[in-house]
Every structure is written in C-alpha cells, then in structure tokens.
C-alpha cells in the first residue's frame, strides 16, 4: 500500500481582503510603459477537470496542485520588477473570486475587465489592447492563460526578456516549450530560420501544427525543429491592434464600442453587452495568430504544463514527488495493490479507497465522484455534457455558492426545511430582502452579525440566535474585522433561492 | 451510456414502531411446538460490503438489493403458517435496530437474545437451543444467517418441509444449493447415499468441502454429487444440545450459566457477560457440524445467494434486470463506455460517473468511496483493516449514529461549533443530561418536542426554537405520533460526545 500526499484539497482560497475602490485606477496609470503588462485571461470553464472544476468555479480558481489556485500562481509568476499591474479579463460570475484571490496574494490589478459573455480569447485580447493603448499604444503586453503550471518563474521571466526586442520591433512573440514527450494533447510550433541559430535567439515561426496523432508527434519530437505551443504571447498594443485591422477587422468596431460604453462598477470595468454580444466566439490563434506573418518564437526549455486533464495532474504530481508504482494518493485516499493511479478526495469528510486498480483516476468531491481510465482524461467533458443534459446540478455548480459578500452552502435539504452555512466577509452586507414562503432562524457561530429585521437593528454575536419571520424585511451584515459564520435554518413550504424580494443591494442586484 | 436502476440506496429502514414491552414473552409461549422456530443470527459485521456495511451498522440491516434490509427479508421469508415467532440473536449495539426493523415489517419476535460479545455462531446456536428447550426440548429450530437472498420463499419453505421428518428423527438437516457456476467463494457439500435417489429426498452428507480452488470447483460442478453449503440448518433443540454434549462439551456450562443469569431489559434478554466472555470464538460448522455423523442434506434448486461481496451484488442485480454490457448503475450513477461495472451511490447528493471502466466496482456513500477491480471483491475487508489501523472513523462507523430513541448525524463540524440533525421516534426520550463545555440551540423542523430545561417544560413545535445554556439540565422528548426532527447547533470549546452528564435514562445508560 502506498500513500503519497502530493495533491491538495481543492477550493481553498487564500484569505481575502476587499480591494479599495479606486486603487485599480491609480495603479493603472503608473508607469506602464516601463514594464510588461500581464493580461490574465480567466474566463474559461475547464470541464475536463470536473468534478473539481465546474462552470460556477472553474479550474483556474481551484488549488489543484499547491496552496495557491492556478490563477493566483499565474498572477504571482507575472509579478515583480519586470511586470506592471496585471489586467484581468473575466466573467461577471467570477469577478469577486478574482479580486478575493488577487487580494489573497497581495496583488492589486491594474484593471478587471468584465466580459458580458464568453467569446473566447480573440475579443478579450483585443479589448485589453484597446484599453491599454488609450494610455500608451506602445505598452508591452503578455497574454497568458491562467491555468498553466510553470514552476520556475524567474526562468520564464528571462524568456520574456528575450522576447522584448522583437516585440518592440513589431513582432508577435510566442513561447515554444521544449517538448519532452510525443504529446498529442497540445498544438505544436514549427520553427523556421537557420537551424544553426543559438537556442536563446528568437526564431521565426514557420507554422502552427494542430494537435497531432501519435506518429506525427513522435516525428516532431525526433525532428528538433518543433516545440509545444504554450499559447503565451508578447506584443505591443499597437502591434496587436494592427494585426486585428489586417486579419480580423470585423472585431474592431464592436470591441471598441463595448469598451467605450463600459461601466465602472465597484472597481470593475463592465464591458457593454450590446456590441459584445454580436462578436463571434473565436480564439486569438484562429482570428490573428495563424494568419499573421510577423511571429517569432522564444524557446522555453524549463518545465511547463497546462493541466489540461486529470492525467496531467497525475503526471505533474509525480514530478513533484516520485510515486511508488505510479500511485498518486492524497492524505484521504488509500491505495491497495494499485499501479499508475490518481486517488484524490477534495472533501475532508470523504475517504477514497482503491483496490487492484491500474491506469485509473478517482477524483471525489463532496457531491460527485469521477472514476475513469487514465487514457480517457479528455472524455471527462463528455461526462459533464451528459450530466448537464439530464439537468444534474453537479454538472456545472457546486453546493457552495460564491456571492459578492461571501459564500453559502446547503448542509441539508429536508421536507419543508433547509440548513445552510453562511460566511460573510468583514465589512460585507447581504441585500435588504424578504421572503414570501419561508422564515429563518439564524445562529451566529463565529464573529458578529448586525441584523436588521423590520427596521430594528440588533447585534448578534457568537452563540446567539435571531428569528426572521416570514415576510419580514431583513438584512444581514458583518460589521466586524473577522469573517462572520452563521447557521441558517429555513422552514417553509417553498425554499428556492428565487423566493427573494430585494429592496436594496450594494452589489446592484436588486 | 447505459443506466439501469437495479441497486437501491442503502440504510433506509422501514418505518418503525416500538414493540410493546412484554409482547415478546406472550408470543414466545404460544404454541411453539407446532411450528419451526426461525433462529435469526444477525451479529455479523459484513466488512466485505464496506462502505455500505460497517461494524456500527452491518450489511444485514442495510437495504442492499431491495426495499427491505436483508434482515427484514430473512424475517419475512421465515414467517407465515409454517413458522413460529423468530428468536433473534444480536449484539447490544444492534438491539434497537433489530426491533425497529422487525416492527417495520410487522413481525413480533419470540425473543431477542443479546450476546454480550461476538463469539461467532457456535455459542449463539447453543444459547438458542437451551433457551427454547426449557419450554420444549423437541422444538424444531431453523438456523439461518440473515444476509442471504432467496427470492422464492415458498420454494424454500417446501424444502424446509422436506427436512422436518429427518430432523424429528434426530438428524441435523443442512440445505444444499444446486450449484450454477464453479464458485470458489463458498464451501461445498458432498452427498453420500445412492446416486439414484429422488432429488427431493434428503440425502446423507458425506463431507463438508472447504472453499475450493477453481479446478476443484469445476470438477465438483461437473460431478453432480456436490452442492453449495448455504449454512442453513434444521434440527430439534434436543438434537443440537446432544451434539454439543458429544462434540463440544466445553460450551455447555458457560452458555447455560450465561442464560441462567440473563437479565430482561426492555423486552430484550441480555445474556450474562461473565461466563459468555470465556467462550471461544468458533463457528457452529467447526464446533459441531463437521464432527457430527448425523447430517442429512435437503437439496434446494431455486435461486440463492449470500451477498458475500460487491461482485455478488453486481451479479444479483443482473438477474433482476439484464444489464447492457454488464453495466449495473443506479439512478445517481452514469456509465460512459463501461463494461461489467457496478456503479452505486448511496447518498442522494452524490453523483458517480464512470468513464471507460472494465470489471470495476464503484460504491460511494456520503463519507467513503470504494473503487475496486471486480475480481478483488474479497479484498475489501483488507481495506477496512487498513483504514482501522490508521484510526479512520469510516472503517467502522457511519456519520449517522443510531440510538435507542432514534438517530443523529453531524451536518457540519466547525471550529467551536457543530450542527446536527436529530430524529426522535414517536414516544421516545433522550436522557436527562447536561454538558460542561457546550450550549445548544434547538430548532424543530418537523413534529413537536417536549423540552425540559432546568425543570421548566416547554412544547416546541415546527419552526420554533429553544436555547439550552451551558450547564443546564435538559431533556428532549417526542410526545407526538410522528417522528420529531430538529436541528441542533452546538457552540463551545469542546464538542465531543463524551461531554455528557446523565441524570436519568429510560434506556439504562446513566
């Protein structure tokens, strides 16, 4: 029996501080021309890492391989003297997760642009370029997906440095990873130019290669002129806008219109939905990169992974800590006579046991268990589609529901009652609301709540309770400096989230 | 993708009614000599069916394959005109589960004998024989494990009828199952006597065969003189006592002493632990059957299974409803491109997904997931041993804790707080108690509670709450006719179950 503790529980978020309003704008205007502005794209849904990654809380925000989420790790990797404050593009559902997670690692974003709807990477990159070009068209931008693993940030930084000169000269610089196996799950890059050039020199790109079959991958690995396409790009705002003008001109007007009508909201910049919605769903690779003739490749020989599936997580874990018989099992998992397995429990109350398994991944959360052949990692998205088609909540949502003010989760749903745990951030407030069908008992178990019921304000502290009768207009706030946790017991004939009448809401949801 | 709904959720218990005190004794004395008294042995722990079966709530009490638990199904199968009221032998931990489950199917036991400690089947069978012989030494006893599946109860009853005459004549009758496959997981019986005898005639037993290897099993299946040993025996009390006197005389005195000093308790008969504890842990097969020369075999050609592991559950499910590609999946499980798999979720909030699996069993409960090669079903007990060695609760206990008055389960355990759901049977009461380290908030969500706090009695009904301060002497009762459900929120620095001072307890636990 082997037990390594190489994977970590999911979903923890480093302690959050709300970012002060206005901070973003100050930072944004400070000396961006001197440094590279990271563009963090974090709108993806990551269904291949279900059940830990779901549409409501995708993989980039989960702590899949370490203490930080992939998004936090990306932001940290692209911070320091080399970089300016990052520009983040995300969806409305994730805006508070983004700010919480950045605050958790002490990073203040230059701006957080909210995409009204997911439209893949082309509109997002153009929006970032147009937004930054307004202040400085020659600003250097580094577009990076926020779900990559690059353990050596300094080595990556030196690769970025090597890309600066060609980017300033109007090239679009892409980063090519030195391949270590005949990977069929990635796109590849074929280098042009002289074969005798120094490996650190940027090389012209001959062509993008789509995900190959096994034979083609073997051939490219042996050839030496092929690298993995990491999907990381360095360029000036001017270069990218010109590339769109030449190769995808139809994007310019709607993205510009959406930016011009953008609405500031609690430190976020909400792109206007009207023009945005008309944009096609297209990746930057298809829209621009594959058509542009001015691409250069900077080689990156250090470790990189895109965590595209549970097989990648399993492989990464073994790089961190070699696993006996290929068993990667966390502290809540037990492997008996298993070979080449990933056993993972993301719920502290859930034990996982594997007996006699080969090439198998088991990933368990509190509400879903995935068991798959290791070679079928890419088919996990099929499972998500199947569950979604049957209307099963677990396909896209967690029990824990993140809100601007904190989060809640249902502990038990009974006939005519429901018990929730609610956590409210310091200083945060729920909307002033009432319910038609339910009454609520609140018991504070940590911190202090300021509770308003039909105009009467009460401070409710640990081990105190308060009753909110059916129909009463009420609000819950956390006036303190520590998170407030309360247990809510609802009773009533209908307990859906949509039985809510909002009177006032600081988060503009009423 | 295939979805059959052939397995059922675990642990539901048919609605319970407490048995009236004294009912057992009345029934016991009524006409036992006319019929066969079923002896239901239900003390086993069933670790091979972990995680659904655990020491605290073993497989015989779980609804593994139908609406009833195996114990309920056994009791029902051995009820009707042919049989007397059953005599149940069980452990102290299971006594209330036994009475609840019998009440749930409308069966009043002749007696429930509580074994002070598990000592395997030999002492249990002797205790039953001595207990019944006191009223009538010629009483006909049918010993049956309570974890068998025998769909045709009437066919089995006719087999019992065929055993009556030899049993009256002083034979020990065992039941041999017509084998349908070369099973290596069962013991076998070799028949003696003339090969030309009618198949319905009881035949003398030549010998017991231990669990064979595959080749021996194949040979026995082909031979025709071999049957599976079901471990079901029919005999008179007198015959069994004489067999013990001859083959295992050391058992007699301690079992008799334990019976004589037995203490009636709420309708149960608690065997005295002093003599009992000195008994060896031995099966009736080893102690008596394999030595006795007076065994006859009654053939049973209908379907029978002992549900000895998850592979048996998988096999049984396909007999009920043929499964496409061998996929047995319940309503909460999804199989994508799987062959010969069992996918089972016993928690209504837990979805199970299998992708590309072959010969694999996945069994998930709310706090444990088993994934094993189908051919390793017997090694599940190894997993339980491994978890137990690491002190992991799931090895032996469920989150749901059964008590004489009902059950409770922890919904969430936080720092300095805990939330429980508590269900109290109609008419039941918790002990009068106090806690040194915690206070409790109770919110009734179903039914009505009578709550005593420091001498003050309050009726608390649905959607009402009450507070029990730290140190207060309190009691909770359900004075109503329907189960009472409440949510308890505990706060305090120490929340262990052992922080309890009991002042009065109807269940004699103070």
From TrEMBL, chains A, B:
InterPro entries named in the record: GMPP_N, Man1P_GuaTrfase/Man6P_Isoase, Man6P_isomerase-2_C, ManC/GMP-like_b-helix, Mannose-6P_isomerase_type2, NTP_transferase_dom, Nucleotide-diphossugar_trans, RmlC-like_jellyroll
Query: What CDD domains does UniProt report for this protein, alphabetically?
Result: cupin_PMI_typeII_C, GDP-M1P_Guanylyltransferase
Q: Establish whether keyword Nucleotidyltransferase is in the entry.
A: yes
Look up the EC number in the record and give it: 2.7.7.13
For molecular function, the Gene Ontology terms on record are: GTP binding; isomerase activity; mannose-1-phosphate guanylyltransferase (GTP) activity
Q: Which reaction does it catalyse?
A: alpha-D-mannose 1-phosphate + GTP + H(+) = GDP-alpha-D-mannose + diphosphate
The family database entries (Pfam families) matched by this protein are listed as:
ManC_GMP_beta-helix, MannoseP_isomer, NTP_transferase
| Biological process, per Gene Ontology | GDP-mannose biosynthetic process; polysaccharide biosynthetic process
Top-level taxon in the UniProt lineage: Bacteria
Q: Give residue ranges for domain Nucleotidyl transferase.
A: 38-318
Keyword annotations for this protein, in alphabetical order, are:
GTP-binding, Isomerase, Nucleotide-binding, Nucleotidyltransferase, Transferase
Domain called MannoseP isomerase/GMP-like beta-helix: residue spans: 334-387
Q: What class of enzyme is it?
A: transferase
Family (UniProt): Belongs to the mannose-6-phosphate isomerase type 2 family.
- What protein name is recorded for this chain? mannose-1-phosphate guanylyltransferase
Originating species: Paracoccus contaminans
